[in-house]
Amino acid sequence: MSELGKFLRARRERVRPADVGLAAGVGTRRTPGLRREELATLAGVSIDYYTRLERGRETRPSPAVVDALAAALRLDEEETGYLRILASSTARQPARGSGQTIRPTLSMLLESVRPNPAYVIGRTNDVLGANPGGLSLLPGLADWPASQRNTIRYTFLHPVARDLWPDWEQKARACVAQLRAVAGSDPDAPDLAALVGELLVKSPDFGQMWERYEVRKIGDGRKLWRHPAVGEVTLSYEVLDINRTDGQRMVIYMAPPGTPDHDAMVLLDRLALDRAGEPGPDQLALRGGE
Question: Distance between CA 214 and CA 148 in Å, rounded?
Answer without folding.
Answer: 25
